[in-house]
Structures are given as C-alpha cells and as structure tokens.
Design a protein that fits this description.
single chain; alpha+beta; Beta Polymerase, domain 2; 6 strands; disordered C terminus
C-alpha cells in the first residue's frame, strides 16, 4: 500500500499519525489523487484533516479546493433538508407512506453530523403506492420528471424527479434496486414493515432498519455498482457498524443474507473489505455463517484495490469504450450495459436508450476526452478498473457455483 493510500485511510479514521506519514515521504503523496479519492466526502475529509493536525502539511491549492468543496456540500445539505421537509409534509397530507433509502438514513443515524454525508439524489421507496401518484403529490414543490428521462423507458419502474434549477434528483423506487432482484416480494414487504422512524432536521421520516440498511448499502456497492464507487461506501458501512454496534442484530443480518447465495457472497466480501480498510470488527460467526473462506481472500484483495485506486472515473460510458483496446471488448461492454440497464425494455427501447447514451451524452464525454479529461493515465486506470471488476465477478461466480454444489452435495 503506497503512502497516498495509507494517508487516505489515516484521514478517514482521524488517525493523529497522519501528519507523520506526509513528513516521512512528502514527495510520495499524490495530492491530486487524494483529492479525486475524496471528491464525494470533502467536508468529512476537511474536518478530519483539522482534527489530526494535517492542515499545515497540505498544499495550499489542494486545501483551497477541499475548503470550497466542503462549503458546497454544506450548502447543498441545507437545500436538501428543505426538500426533505417539503416532501414529508406533502406526502403526509396526501396520505402516502414512504421509506427514505440509504443516504438519508446513513446521514442522520450513522454520521456525527448529516452534512458530512453528501448525497447527489434522494431515494424514496414508495412500496405499493403507484410512483406516478407520489410524483403528483410532490408536484407543488416543483418536482417534475425531466425531459431527458421522459424520453427513455423507466428502469425497474423508477420515476426520476427534479426541481428545475437544482442539482438534486429525487428517485421514486417501487423497491430498493439492490434488493428487488434478490429478495422475494414477501421479504421486501417484511423490510418495509421493519422500517423505523427517526428525526430528520426536525421532522419525522421513515428509514430502513439498521440491519436492512446494512444489507442494502453492501449490495448497492457490490451487486448494483460493481465496486465502482470508490471508498465512500465502505465509510458508510464502517460508520453504520460503529454507530449501531450495541444493538445491531447480526443474527438477523445473517438470516436475511444466507437465503440468497449471491447476497451472502457480496455481504461477506464487503464486510471483510471494510474490516481490512478500517479495522472494523466483524464477528467471526458472521463470516463463518456467510460462507467466508480463504478462497475469498483474492476477492477481498481486488475489492480493496478498487476502493483505494478509484479516481472518480465512474459513469463515463464513452470513456470506458475508448479505454478498451479491442473491438470485441467494446462490444462486450455494450452488451453488459444493455444487460444491466435495459433488461426491462423492449428491443426498440433498448436501441433508443443506447442512442441517448451515445448521441446525447456522448459528445460531452468525447469533448472532455479531446480536452485532456481522458488522458492516457485516466484511460489506463479506467481499463484497469474494468478488468479488476471482471476478475472479481468471475471469482464470485466460481464461489457461488461451488456453494451451490456443496449445498446440493449436502442434501
């Protein structure tokens, strides 16, 4: 592990030895890479830099960007709080019950202060209520479906709303994306019933129970986003486990995971990677129950590498295609994107969505590439990320195949 990765972990953990790492090898710290790695949690980074006494060691240019980013995150938090309050009041008046997913629950239950956990969107689980009815109820606060989403089919029935002039999306989910493919309708209904009420800026909101939130967070990183979100989701997991350590029901976590082999594999890998990164205590009986074995060490190695090497390159499909050296590799990437995003669409709609990706979003991404935004280093790193994820996926498929074989043999 290089000095930049060790410094990143020291900052996140508030380690007072962080300044010593810089003094020991000042030329070895990649400040640009550190900025990229912390781009999604700059307020938390800056606060921990102050707490550890690291500020005098930080180059002024980098420090100024962290300070600007932290101020922006706080301002966006204030606006987001206003959106949450308005949504809760309007939905209450309409008699509609919702559960706020992941971000809101983590920010207000697991972090010292909610502004330390920024969000780019607000995810609402609407349960049995029609998403369009919920969207109509939110219309008075200016939330409408943007045209860029009206033109394409809804993935998993999710309705995307946005207030014009703001950068915050509100996503209305019939079921959590990370769970709807793996859990039965009965299991989803049970999770809905287990949701708890918490205070969110002076109003009461329903969020997932801590055990369900832990599973959702782990699967959102692994199953949904292919470990392509950097280190922040592991911070979420570590913060959740730290804040709920006394009352977290590990037996419930295990029970809700082992009934689905894929869930058990990804839960084990994410929890063990979190433990490796931050020293988070995961009970031995949990690892054993999730099927953890020495065979998953390589999976944890790859996941750790992906977390520490991430430089904010996610979401650039054209950049990914450019970074892949072979035509066959690019064809496979297009098919993979189609499999992941368009499985609920008819073939004509699949073509429409792909056209939107290439022609509507593509020019902006290609323009960034031509301006130097996709320099050779970035493209090589993106290619490496894709290759490591494919390796991780292959290891998981082999592991699940072995697990199913063991189960069949035991029966």
């Amino acid at each position: 592990m290089n000095v930049t990765a060790r410094l990143l972990l020291a900052i996140i953990q508030g380690d007072p030895d962080a300044p010593a790492l810089v003094r020991a090898d000042p030329e070895g710290v990649d400040w640009e890479g550190l900025e990229a790695a912390t781009r999604t949690f700059r307020a938390l980074t800056l606060e921990n830099m102050h707490a550890t006494g690291l500020i005098p060691e930080v180059p002024q240019a980098s420090l100024s960007r962290w300070e600007d980013g932290a101020r922006l995150e706080v301002l966006l938090h204030v606006r987001r709080q206003a959106l949450i309050r308005s949504a809760i009041f309007l939905l209450s008046d309409a008699g509609i019950d919702v559960v706020f997913l992941k971000g809101v629950g983590l920010a207000h239950m697991s972090y010292p202060r909610p502004e330390l956990r920024p969000m780019t969107d607000l995810d609402l689980w609407v349960g049995q209520t029609d998403v369009d009815r919920v969207g109509d109820a939110l219309w008075p606060m200016g939330m409408t479906e943007p045209f860029r989403f009206q033109a394409i089919p809804r993935v998993r029935g999710v309705l995307m709303l946005e207030r014009p002039g703001t950068a915050t999306l509100m996503e209305l989910h019939p079921a959590p994306d990370s769970l709807c493919d793996l859990w039965t309708p009965e299991e989803l209904e049970a999770a809905w019933q287990r949701a708890i009420e918490i205070d969110v800026g002076g109003v009461t909101a329903r969020v997932m129970a801590p055990e369900d939130l832990l599973i959702h967070t782990c699967l959102h990183l692994s199953y949904n986003h292919h470990f392509d979100l950097g280190i922040r989701p592991y911070i979420d997991v570590a913060m959740l486990l730290k804040s709920h350590r006394p009352e977290l029901d590990w037996n419930a976590v295990v029970e809700r995971s082992v009934s689905h082999p894929e869930t058990a594999v990804w839960m084990d890998v994410v929890l063990r990677t979190t433990s490796r990164l931050f020293g988070t205590d995961i009970p031995d009986h949990v690892t054993v129950a999730l099927g953890g074995s020495d065979g998953r060490v390589e999976m944890v190695d790859v996941a750790t590498d992906l977390a520490l090497s991430h430089r904010g390159l996610r979401g650039t499909f054209i950049g990914e295609l450019v970074s892949i050296p072979t035509l066959m590799g690019r064809f496979k990437a297009i098919l993979r994107r189609g499999t992941i995003h368009y499985t609920e669409s008819s073939f004509p709609n699949w073509v429409v969505q792909l056209a939107v990706d290439v022609f509507a979003r593509g020019p902006r991404q290609i323009g960034r590439w031509l301006r130097g935004g996709y320099d050779r280093r970035s493209l090589d790193e993106r290619r490496s990320q894709v290759e490591r994820w494919e390796r991780l996926e292959a290891l998981a498929m082999r592991d699940m195949g072995r697990s199913r074989g063991d189960s069949a043999g035991g029966s």
